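Morning!

This is the sequence you dropped in the shared folder:
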Amino acid sequence: EIDAVGGELAWIRKRKDFPTNPTKIERSSAEINSSVLHSRQVKDAIEKEAERRQVPKEEIRKEAAEIIENMAQNFNLPSVKVVGYGVVKAIKNLFDAIYVNLKALRSLRERLNSDSIVFIPTHKTYADFLLLSLLCYHEDVTLPAIAAGSDFQQSYFLGEALRRCGAFFIRRSFGDDAFYWAIFSEYIQTHLIHADRPLEFFVEGTRSRTGKSLHPKYGLLQCLLEPYLRAQVYDLVIVPVTMNYDKILEESLYAYELLGFPKPKETTSGLLKARHILSKSFG
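The structure's back. Tokens below.
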């Protein structure tokens, strides 16, 4: 279909008509961040943390603002188009065909006018979130805010590109850090309550190295369900997404990891070194 509209450049420049909720006012990233910082939950967390550490509340408030700023997505459609052009060129080289349940995807588009939607894809490769975002873009489904690991921020270029495409960054593990959890859960829940954009979570927490689904992280599901259970949202649409591949892009890397070699860091140089896979076919 991309070739039918004149190629990648014509496809990415095509005017988009993303649905909007008529009962909601679209908020900027800065407005979302401010809403989180001034929420009752985060204010209470700041007071408790200041009391626990025996430091002024203003110091903790500044720390909370930094956490939110570091975490937040900064969606920008022109940036999506620039990144999307490169991604779609790569996808066409890597895959012979992509088969999609378009009927299900198009039915979701209609529900974006009224409901909060959460995509929960299986996670076998970094291509998962790229493909889902491309399919949403193609079908005029509002692009999701995507939960990504904070290790992507080791590369400023890669991290900022993902941030402008809707990614927000979270720690791989929260441990017993109640202060961070309060900020994170408020950030997630304000997206759901105000339906700023769909959310996308990899509930397994990391990519499966074996091809089998991993045990889900129930803390994330609990965080998603709380606004619904408190009647802060009328309906919450959880969308499981299965993504299967003839061959995984990171297949050779997974083999090395299973042999005990350390996982490579997500850096710009690592991304450039991986460009050799563009000459391969993955089915």
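Headline: DSSP finds twelve helices and five strands in the chain.

More detail when I'm at my desk.
O.
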